Amino acid sequence: MKDTFKHKGMRQQLVNVLKTKGITNENVLRAIGKIPRHLFMDSGFLDHAYQDKAFPIAADQTISQPYTVAFQTELLQVEKGDKVLEIGTGSGYQTAVLCELGAKVYSIERQQELFKKTSQFLPKLGYRAKKLIFGDGYKGLVEEAPYKGIIVTAGAPFVPKPLLAQLEIGGRLVIPVGDQVQTMTLFVRKGIKSFEKTEFGEFRFVPLLEDKN
Ligand code: SAH
């Protein structure tokens, strides 16, 4: 587990690329500049770790593209101490970004292999989520609700009702919605029954799986 000056230099270049693509939140850029993304990937992909691209990880899943991570995190508007629920822990990279921003992170993964691997890996880098859970993200995590932010990192065919219900008033749900292609969608909870919905551009995610492996 090595992080070298070369890696740091490549990370800075990645941060500059994200800036040119429109990411402005300084805290998000700082987190991406700090986190050793290459350590979240299998060794064969080390040379690609700081390109702005998604890459395969275990169990046929992907580590999201840095721009996507930055874009979603920016929409979430995380502040220190905020309780945030992540659906789709995967490699743990997005989890680490949320930890860097000072969020209290709860994250759910439904692939056992990834859940185990990432549960062991994140603490080694010093990232301590409040809870990593092996389970089904469609249900959210009602025991710890409500959340200031909920971020879904897989493509959802529809918006799961429990996720909206587990937002606090003023809370934000960032979720890519769609089958083949997803529209990044933000829901802000305005009241018990009212949500403000805003749609952003199109993204491509691996599917949020329900009742199957
Ligand atoms: N945040 C991750 C992205 C991983 S890709 C990262 O930065 O690496 C999406 C992840 O969502 C995969 O790991 C996949 O196994 C997981 N996933 C798919 N359906 C899920 C569900 N219903 N509940 C929880 N996780 C799910």
UniProtKB/TrEMBL annotation:
Claim: Chloroplast is one of the keywords in the record: no
Keyword DNA-binding set for record: no
Gene3D superfamilies (alphabetical): Vaccinia Virus protein VP39
EC number: 2.1.1.77
Top-level class of the enzyme under EC nomenclature: transferase
Active site as annotated: S64
GO cellular component, one term: cytoplasm
Chief site of localization: cytoplasm
Gene: pcm
Function comment: Catalyzes the methyl esterification of L-isoaspartyl residues in peptides and proteins that result from spontaneous decomposition of normal L-aspartyl and L-asparaginyl residues. It plays a role in the repair and/or degradation of damaged proteins.
Family indicated by similarity: Belongs to the methyltransferase superfamily. L-isoaspartyl/D-aspartyl protein methyltransferase family.
Source taxonomy: Bacteria, Pseudomonadati, Bacteroidota, Flavobacteriia, Flavobacteriales
Protein name: Protein-L-isoaspartate O-methyltransferase
Gene Ontology biological process terms from the UniProt entry: methylation; protein repair
HAMAP family for this protein: PIMT
Keywords: Cytoplasm, Methyltransferase, S-adenosyl-L-methionine, Transferase
Record-linked Pfam families: PCMT
Reaction(s) catalysed (UniProt annotation): [protein]-L-isoaspartate + S-adenosyl-L-methionine = [protein]-L-isoaspartate alpha-methyl ester + S-adenosyl-L-homocysteine
Highest taxon of the lineage: Bacteria
